[in-house]
Design brief:
Chain A: It holds the Pfam family ABC_tran. Chain A: It is a peripheral membrane protein. The structure holds 2 protein chains of 2 kinds. By secondary structure, chain A is of the alpha/beta class. Among the domains of chain A are: 1-42, no CATH class; 296-379 and 466-476 and 491-552, Rossmann fold (3-Layer(aba) Sandwich). Chain A is built from 19 helices and 20 strands. Chain A has helices at residues 4-19, 30-35, 38-45, 89-96, 119-124, 142-147, 158-172, 187-200, 217-232, 244-250, 273-281, 340-347, 370-376, 398-402, 418-431, 447-460, 477-492, 504-510, 533-540, and strands at residues 49-60, 63-74, 77-83, 104-109, 112-114, 127-130, 205-209, 236-240, 253-258, 261-267, 299-309, 315-325, 329-333, 353-360, 363-364, 378-382, 465-469, 496-500, 513-518, 521-527. In chain A, the strands form 4 sheets. A 6-stranded mixed sheet of chain A has the order 6-7-8-3-9-10, with helices on both faces. Chain A has a 6-stranded mixed sheet with strand order 16-17-18-13-19-20, sandwiched between helices. In chain A, a hairpin with a 2-residue loop joins strand 1 (49-60) and strand 2 (63-74). Chain B is mainly α. Chain B has a domain at 79-304. Chain B has helices at 25-49, 54-66, 69-94, 102-119, 125-154, 158-178, 210-227, 229-239, 241-246, 251-278, 289-299, 304-328, 332-354; strands at residues 15-19, 203-204, 207-208, 355-359. In chain B, a hairpin with a 2-residue loop joins strand 2 (203-204) and strand 3 (207-208). The interface between A and B is large, with 43 and 33 residues. The structure holds adenosine-5'-triphosphate (ATP) and magnesium ion.
Chain lengths: 552, 368
């Protein structure tokens, strides 16, 4: 720290270590290049601290999002950032990427205090962040998105730039088609483009905010391979995730935040999922899922030969047939994009049905408006990739969001906010929603808390049929289990629940039966109690497991 | 520990723009007041450079607007259509429907009301007034419904659509004045006849009753938007159409209904103008009010009570500047420039409530 020249040198070494393979390392001053020797580079590849946060505090009005947080990442290390919903992970990372500025505390980059005023600054310092909501231009190609906003852009440089993109992709094993348009891409592909975007800008510190929340297991595996390769190149990586198995798999160390404070930093090799959960929650927790039995028998919902075309006219659901009983949780498993979204939207009346029937209490609900369907007691809580786009009004508070489906209920031309206010307060207690107040715009809540608001409202609307899609996406472990409990409570009341899920382990424990979708077709419906992950996995890819009792 | 003096500057600009977190209402108000003071100071410098005493000129503007009961009434007369039109526009803006066709909707309101004033002036006075008001609302409402229909049906751009409709409405007056509604007694310049006494809006405290309508509307619109089911629907549609559909709302119906209402309120402004201020229909019936109303609604952040305040401010400025012109012998352009300066600062202040500038520390030069 006392030798500025040396530290500059070392830092340049770090950059080079990470970007050695790149043709144009324009960020590194030529003079520094001159001094570099292979030896320093080797030493610098690991061990040295890449970035360090000291005593960072950030408040929003009366909310203390981060309180005196210390954190450091070394070069060639993957640090997992763990914490409950609203514990301040995203806020902390946003300060590294220049979106917010800390109220107090310092950021040390290679031992040097720096001020990061804007995302452009962050890029200059080699910090790249991949946000949970992608920031890509849909109508442009991958290449155009990657180059967007790079200074000094001109037409004829395009070729060399394409070369550079190719080179980076090859090096890290990123698999993209440079000319493909973003709107044609799967979530995993979009994420790859985001990663390329920051790598193209020579980032050597990479921050990923819940990157796996919307990925399939296969895509996650690919992402982790990429991250491992970057780590080997000497990059410093911070990853936020709520999935403990991923933390155990990918990280070297884990820093745990609780209520805005850094509680502990542990070596991944010396800990386990159980201990991490306790550190996170602050008390011993028992995590188990019940599957209560009940005596309900009647059929609530019958789906016959349902065919649904999605917005592009492609048949996303083809001729499916199933039945939902009262007091049962029917899981829906399948690779992402197998028709889950369309099935939900068709049942909620949001997507026109091309063929088939959905009978609810023997009455066909097809052709009914969403309003009529809501009145019949069918409730959908769909957690799309873009959480705030459907189901919530982002700049309104909890109270106004609670009224969304019930505002018509009270008589006369005026709305009544009284019940909604009480419901909001109840949900805050019940689900542990972290918010400064019931009128704070939900957009300002943390990702997981936004979701609890949506989910809480749907569960509390006393439905007869509850459709939940990706209910626990982005929720911390403890909250996830709270949600499972709530679902079981509804089940005991006789509600029929369609549970569109991702985590097969959870589904096998929670659901009564599991229906497997593949390319819009039902490949099998199995009893969860007697089934295995392998069997379902096979059905998901279209193979027939042991003959699925497709009667339902 | 070393300070950030060794911070690297890669051609860092002297200042940069960064988005700000949301502001509290008090801060926002403080900013506005500050901007107003700056605006007055800058305007003062301008007046001084012309060789006048800024304090005197300002005093004239304020006192000019309220100098006598006649000027006070004049100020209020300017405020009435502006207030009503701003309230109308607010509905559409809340729904994120960019209605910049208030001008045309005012005109259509005026045309519809004029029909009854010209051809049914023998009806009982109160009935005639009510019918004219209803006709004005219908005219403005229908005119606003056209872009709403095409937007919901074919996804046309409402901004261009409403803008173009303004001109069609304007030329319709021209057509009526030169053709079917031409006043046979008019010599030379073709115009529409003046309304008979029976077709003129009554005066209350020396100003036509439009001010009562305006004040009542402030309260009604506030409650409608904040507490009614329809107001809630408007806000949700403005937020996200997907969410509105998900909640079972009929988005198209809501857009059409709200636009009708938005236009209908602007239509009332047209009716009060023809029957209360001009006593006839002329091409100047809206006179740019529909455009100023956009600025008013925007500055007031769509809050009806703030709209009332901003409208009063605008009207005082307008009326006072005309007094200033006559008593100092200044050309019209001077008061226009003055108004421009004030607007510039107030709108500029809006920028600073949303963004902030970050200056390079210590003014260092790029050091590497
Ligand atoms: N712009 C903002 N204005 C006000 N409060 C905010 C803002 N951003 C975050 N907060 C608050 O700061 C706290 C921390 O939020 P943050 O988004 O960092 O949580 P998180 O750890 O990322 O949670 P999650 O796992 O749910 O994503 C929350 O209580 C949130 O409500
Ligand atoms: Mg977060």
């Amino acid at each position: 720290m006392q030798y500025p020249q040396l530290s500059l040198l070392l830092e340049a070494g770090g950059i080079l270590a990470c970007n050695r393979h790149l043709t144009a390392s324009h960020r590194v001053p030529a003079v520094a290049n001159y001094f570099l020797t292979g030896e320093i580079m080797q030493k610098e590849k690991t061990h040295a601290t890449a970035i360090e946060l000291k005593g960072i505090t950030k408040t929003f009005g009366s909310v203390v999002a981060n309180n005196q947080i210390d954190l450091s990442v070394r070069k060639g290390e993957i640090l997992a950032l763990l914490g409950e919903n609203g514990s301040g992970k995203t806020t902390l990372m946003n300060m590294l990427s220049g979106i917010y500025r800390p109220d107090s505390g310092s950021v040390l980059l290679n031992g040097e205090a720096v001020t990061i005023n804007s995302p452009e600054d962050a890029i200059e310092f080699g910090i790249g962040m991949i946000h949970q909501h992608f920031k890509l231009v849909d109508v442009l190609s991958a290449t155009d998105n990657i180059m967007l906003g790079v200074k000094g852009g001109s037409r004829w440089l395009k070729k060399t730039r394409s070369d550079k993109i190719q080179e980076i992709s090859r090096h890290f094993g990123l698999d993209i088609s440079p000319e493909k348009k973003i709107y044609q891409m799967s979530v995993g592909e979009k994420q790859t483009v985001e990663i390329l975007k920051v790598m193209y800008r020579n980032a050597n510190i990479l921050i990923l905010d819940e990157p796996t929340a919307v990925l399939t297991p296969q895509e996650t595996k690919k992402l982790f391979d990429i991250l491992r390769r970057m780590k080997a190149e000497g990059c410093a990586i911070i990853i936020i995730t709520h999935k403990l198995n991923e933390v155990m798999e990918i990280s070297d160390r884990v820093t745990i935040l609780r209520k805005g404070e850094s509680i502990a930093t542990v070596e991944t090799a010396e800990t386990n999922a159980h201990e991490l959960t306790e550190l996170m929650v602050g008390r011993p927790v028992e995590l188990s899922i019940d599957r209560p039995e009940n005596g309900f028998e009647e059929t609530l919902l019958e789906v016959h030969h349902l065919t649904v075309a999605n917005e592009e006219g492609f048949e996303a659901i083809q001729d499916i047939k199933f039945e939902l009983k009262r007091g049962e949780i029917l899981g829906v498993a399948g690779i992402a994009g197998s028709g889950q979204k369309e099935l939900c939207e068709a049942m909620a009346g949001l997507l026109p049905v091309s063929k088939g029937a959905i009978l609810y209490n023997k009455e066909n609900i097809i052709g009914k408006s969403p309003e009529e369907i809501i009145k019949m007691g069918i409730s959908m809580s769909f957690i799309p990739e873009d959480r705030l786009g459907m189901g919530l009004a982002a700049s309104m508070g909890m109270v106004d969001n609670m009224m969304l489906k019930t505002y018509k209920k009270n008589k006369g031309p005026f709305v009544s906010r009284k019940e909604a206010r009480e419901l909001s307060k109840r949900l805050i207690k019940q689900l542990g929603i972290v918010t400064p107040g019931v009128d704070t715009p939900v957009r300002r809540l943390s990702g997981g808390n936004v979701q609890k608001v949506l989910l809480g409202r749907e569960i509390e609307s006393n439905p007869n049929v509850l459709i939940t899609a990706y209910a626990v996406r982005g929720l911390d472990i403890n909250s996830s289990y709270t949600i499972y409990d709530s679902l079981n409570e509804q089940k005991q009341k006789g509600v029929g629940i369609l549970f569109i899920g991702e985590d097969l382990d959870v589904m096998l424990e929670l659901c009564d039966r599991i229906m497997v979708l593949c390319h819009g077709k039902v490949t099998g419906i199995v009893e969860a109690k007697t089934s295995t992950k392998e069997e379902i996995g096979l059905l998901m890819t279209g193979g027939s497991g042991k003959e699925g009792s497709a009667d339902a | 520990m070393r300070e950030s003096s060794s911070k690297r500057h890669y051609n860092e600009p002297l200042a940069r723009i960064v988005k700000k977190d949301a502001m509290s209402n008090q801060r926002m108000a403080a900013y506005s007041v500050f901007a107003l003071i700056l605006a007055i100071a800058a305007g003062g410098v301008f007046i001084f450079s012309l060789g006048y005493n800024p304090f005197k000129v300002y005093a004239t503007i304020v006192s000019g607007a309220f100098r006598s009961s006649i000027s006070t009434q004049g100020t209020i007369k300017i405020a009435i259509p502006l207030l009503i039109a701003s309230l109308g526009i607010t509905h559409a803006f809340k729904m994120q429907f960019w209605n910049i066709g208030a001008e045309g909707q005012i005109i259509m309101g005026g045309i519809f009301a004029t029909y009854f004033a010209l051809f049914h002036s023998d009806w009982p006075h109160w009935l005639l007034m009510l019918v004219m008001c209803a006709a004005g609302m219908l005219g403005g409402g229908l005119w606003a419904l056209i872009p709403a229909f095409f937007k919901t049906k074919y996804g046309t751009n409402e901004t261009l659509f409403t803008l173009m409709l303004n001109y069609i409405a304007l030329y319709m007056i021209k057509y009526l004045a030169e053709g079917p509604w031409l006043d046979p007694k008019a010599s030379g310049f073709p115009k529409i006849a003046s309304f008979e006494k029976n077709a003129r809006l009554d005066e209350v405290f020396g100003v036509h009753a439009g001010w009562i309508i305006g004040l009542v509307l402030v309260g009604v619109v506030y409650f409608y938007l904040k507490y009614s089911k329809q107001g809630y629907e408007i806000a949700i549609v403005g937020e996200s159409e997907n969410t509105a559909r998900y909640a079972g709302m009929n988005v198209k119906k809501i857009i059409m209904r709200t636009m009708f209402l938005s236009g209908a309120i602007c239509g009332i402004a047209g009716m009060t103008q023809v029957s209360g201020a001009a006593y006839t229909l002329s091409e100047g019936v809206a006179g740019g009010v529909g455009f100023t109303a956009i600025i008013v609604a925007w500055l007031a952040k769509l809050n009806p009570f703030v709209i009332l305040l901003v409208t009063i401010g605008f009207s005082v400025l307008e009326k006072g500047s005309s007094v200033m012109q006559s008593s100092f012998g200044l050309p019209t352009s001077v008061s226009d420039i003055l108004q421009g300066i004030i607007l510039f600062f107030i709108l500029g202040c809006d920028f600073f409530t949303r963004y902030k500038l970050i200056f390079r520390k210590g003014g260092q030069k790029n050091d590497n």
